[in-house]
Input
Amino acid sequence: HYFIQSNLSLTQSMNTTEGEEMHGLSPLKWLDCTIGIILILALLIGTTLNLFSVRYFTTMKTRNGNNRYFQRLYSIISINDIMICLGVFPVIEVAFCPDRKSRIFGSYQFCETWYTIWYTIYQLSIILVATLSFSRLLLIRNMNFILKPWIPWVVTGVTVLLYVSVYGIPIYLQEVYVTYMRGTMHCSYAGMDLAHGGDQLYSSKDQLMSRIFNFLIFGVAIMCYITVCCSVILSLLYLAKRIPNAPCTKGGIAAWKREREAAKTVLFMTILYLIFNSYSTMAFLYVMLDFTVINPVKVGVETVNDVMQRIQTGLYGDNEFLNSYTLVTCTILGPCLNSMMNPMVYYWRVTCFREYVLEVWSRVKDRGQLVLGRVYFKNRVCSSNEVENTNNTNL
Output
């Protein structure tokens, strides 16, 4: 992973003895512990709230095709958010370990598995948000547009299959090398040179493979980010433009108000995504432009080690401190906090979901029973049997 490669100079630090330094990097213990505490809170809160989200969305029934589409999409997003929140537990151990010496990441097989799973669900979260944002834009533009309920499953299946192959197959074939780097606090892609020797010249095949991987790993993320930005801007424009004509739409002013509220929910989710992913996207763009346009690799002249040396300098040159904390913040902390806050948006924006959570919490507090099934409140029901209330169109 070229973005992670910016700290390749710290690869050997994993194998240093007790008294050796990590190549000039002096991590602040209080900052590591702060990151660890934040990740613990995100793991506990995010996993708990997303469990409510999964239960709510998977048991929600609706006869409307577009509602089924968003129900399934939100269900998949919630499941993926749970995996992201749970996936940070090895990084939590690193944050509290003396000198960042991890026992969990010390297993080479675990390191490879974690790396493949983590970056697959990370890429999936980006693509799902782009799908959500673009889908809602289509409905704002045309309220009569029909979304196929099977699309979320296809998008998820294709994405998982693609990125498990992109990350997993080269590792299985020993074409690339993944190792734990204490400087980045997690397992990272260490490059091809460790697998094949770094003195070989950079070939046309290496260049082609590099561009393919750059597109799949960086290009897709950048395109999704651009899609989300454009969707947010166009959604705001369409909302402002269509309000005067709302009574002329199918279902009249009431239908338009429900659609507007649903669009607001998606806007809040996409804004969270933009906040937590802006810097990492800029870093992806920097790497792509640097190696394809600004300073492309010279085939047959530069060796693999030369290319890796360029990558080692990272976004902050030789400042290993900024490089290491930037990487863990962008690729670990940011996605985890984003996943934790998504169900908070549901709680704030979706009345039925909010009352569902409050009712379940009331039962736990008063009776000591965790009941996630049928929940009655006021004069309506939020359950697995029927959710056709207009409050749920905020999705």
Summary: Residues 113 and 164 are 10 Å apart (CA to CA). Strands lie at 177-181, 186-191, 375-377, 380-382. The mean pLDDT is 75. The radius of gyration is 23 Å.
